[in-house]
Specification:
Length: 296
């Protein structure tokens, strides 16, 4: 591989790490180590109202307690506003981003009329605001695809899930780059920062897999490279839903980091580690067998 492998773990500091988030952290670390690459941590604190003060430092401590220490400076998205603004401006200059004046209610009623499924933005403001004040900024998906000669179906291959595809215009619509409250949208921030940090491989939870097509389109629109992707299995809570801070996942019990790591390894399908003193080294070898040397 000619490029320098750079991986990352990108937690949102909306609470402490739990058993589910450790799976993504461990997997991204193992993949970087197994490739002889670098592993970075990015604190995704763009959604400031949802961030918990001090959670960023606490997360870094939790990672360190598990032996997962970044190989370079930690990046905080809250300090990256200028880079996001420059990216949005370049899209606006190309005619690929437009202001949207729709309130949530207006979007819902337009969806009902156009019989769009609930999650799809119906494109109301694509041709102009019609006198409404600008609230959010959206990507004009079809304009990007037409200008760059991209197919309607965005296709990519996930290293664990295999071939994936999404028709972003039909299944998502013109998605938000800057929110009505002025905050930067996850899609824009993640794409700008993955490129700025030279991330070549993204390893993250499977709940994020369906954001990938949007991110690939944005990478094309901004002239940025597309990393390789691997989405890890989710940990399910007692209610059968994905374990998350929202459904009350407990912070990792770091009185026994090895037990926490062992559970995360199990979720990843890695065999039980017989010798706890070099857990991470052994897990790395198993990871290589499972996700790197096996033919795709
Ligand atoms: N910050 C996101 C989260 O904690 C992860 C983003 C990503 O890995 O792309 O769910």
């Amino acid at each position: 591989m000619a490029e320098v492998y750079t991986g990352r773990f990108a937690p949102s500091p909306t609470g402490l790490l739990h058993a589910g988030s450790l799976v993504a952290a461990l997997a991204s670390w193992l993949d970087a180590r197994a490739h002889g690459g670098r592993w970075l941590v990015r604190i995704e604190d763009v959604d400031t109202p949802r961030c918990v003060p001090g959670a960023d430092q606490a997360i870094l401590q939790q990672l360190a307690a598990c032996g997962l220490v970044p190989d370079g400076p930690v990046l905080w998205q809250s300090q990256r506003g200028d880079a996001y603004a420059a990216a949005l401006q370049s899209l606006v200059n190309q005619g690929w981003a437009y202001p949207c004046g729709c309130s949530r209610k207006e979007i819902e009623s337009a969806q009902a009329v156009a019989r769009h499924s609930a999650a799809v933005y119906p494109g109301t403001c694509r041709e102009g605001l019609n006198g409404k004040p600008a609230r959010a900024w959206r990507l004009n998906v079809l304009a990007v695809q037409q200008a760059l000669g991209l197919p309607a179906l965005t296709q990519w291959s996930d290293r664990r899930l295999g071939p994936q595809q999404q028709n972003v215009a039909q299944e998502v619509g013109d998605f938000v780059l800057r929110r009505a409250d002025g905050l930067w949208a996850y899609q824009l921030a993640v794409v700008v920062d993955d490129a700025a940090q030279g991330v070549s491989h993204v390893v993250r939870g499977q709940d994020l897999a369906d954001n990938t097509a949007r991110q690939i389109l944005l990478q094309r629109a901004l002239g940025l490279p597309t990393p390789q992707y691997l989405h890890t299995p989710l940990v399910m809570g007692a209610n059968g839903e994905k374990l998350s801070k929202q459904n009350g996942a407990l912070a990792l019990d770091l009185s026994d980091p090895l037990a926490a790591l062992g559970q995360a390894a199990q979720v990843l399908g890695l065999p039980a580690q017989p010798a706890p003193h070099n857990f991470l080294t052994q897990a790395q070898a198993s990871w290589t067998r499972l996700f790197i040397s096996r033919p795709h």
